Amino acid sequence: MRTQIVKLRFFLIGVLVAALTACQPEEVTTGNGLSDPDVDASFTVESVSGEPNRFTLTANRNDVLKSLWNIGDGFYTGDLTEEIFLPDAGTYTITHQAYGRGGIINETSQEINVATSDPVAGNLIKGGEFEKAEDHEQWTVLQISDSGTYWTFNEGSANVVGSGYNQQGLYQAIEVEANKEYTIDMKVFGSGAINTWFEVYVSPTAPVQKQDYTAEGRRMGLSTWDGCANGPFEGKLSKIGCVGSGNTVSFEQSGTVYLVIKSGGESLGSTGISLTNVEFRGSAN
């Protein structure tokens, strides 16, 4: 009887050793197929025939699960084949991020040289990149609340910080043509906010100091209640915003309209909300 017990013990030990040995990999290699460290982020750039400001970006399709593109205003989720419009003359750095198996991310960049600006889609905003004092002078601060929220101008951006549900705005007058479509956009970035709004308006109604501005309704914006700007963010407002009736506008009469940007809330975050590359352009065909 004792001999049988001893044999049984040795048998069980042997089974356990075999099981543990079977679980160990024979060799550490580059992976087991669940991740792809060499996911290819390469892409090609082709000019669109007859349209010198439009380009087609085509990413490699092998094992790419998701594509993110950055044409100068932050990354956004796009397609493997993406058409972009670069209205201003200059050199642009285009970056593609390719997501592969296992969350692996690789990226590559290329430069595109645009020889001429689009004659229809020229930017009507003055000082929209906030690079110099002359740019800052193109903007007027709209004081809505007495205190608690304020704008500052930096080299390359304008920044609004605040709390206590106070708000303050920024605006610029623009001359428009009747029945012509215009598109509004801007790059925005911040650390994340609490119970905060960031809204864009365009209207022939002139802003008045110490008064709120809601003319024609908000066109685009951020709202923590609607799911954006709760955490860190960066990108074109048209891509990452979550409220508004749309960033394409037209007017029945030629004349002066006002682009008004206002923000406020419980807390605009540790860094506030910044903007740059503000655009108001005639819509290209």
Can you walk me through this structure?
The chain is mostly beta strands. The chain has helices at residues 2-23, 133-136, 237-240; strands at residues 43-48, 51-59, 66-70, 76-78, 81-85, 90-99, 105-114, 140-143, 149-154, 157-176, 182-190, 194-203, 220-223, 233-236, 248-249, 255-267, 273-282. The protein folds into 2 domains: 43-114, Immunoglobulin-like (Sandwich); 133-282, Jelly Rolls (Sandwich), CATH 2.60.120. Strands 8, 9, 10, 11, 12, 13, 14, 15, 16 and 17 form a 10-stranded antiparallel sheet that branches. A 4-stranded antiparallel sheet has the order 4-3-6-7, with no helix packed on it. Strand 3 and strand 4 (76-78) form a beta hairpin. The radius of gyration is 27 Å and the shape is globular. Residues 1-32 have low confidence and may be disordered.
The count of domains is 2
Shape descriptor reads globular
Beta-strand residue percentage: over 45%
* Known CATH architecture of the largest domain: Sandwich
Termini distance? 93 Å
The structural class is: mainly beta
Mean pLDDT value:
89
Largest sheet: 10 strands, antiparallel
Number of helices: 3
Stretches where pLDDT is under 50 for at least 5 consecutive residues are: 1-32
What string, H for helix and E for strand, traces the elements in order?
Answer: HEEEEEEEHEEEEEEEHEEE
Number of strands: 17
Q: What helical percentage do the residues reach?
A: 10-25%
Rg over alpha carbons: 27 Å
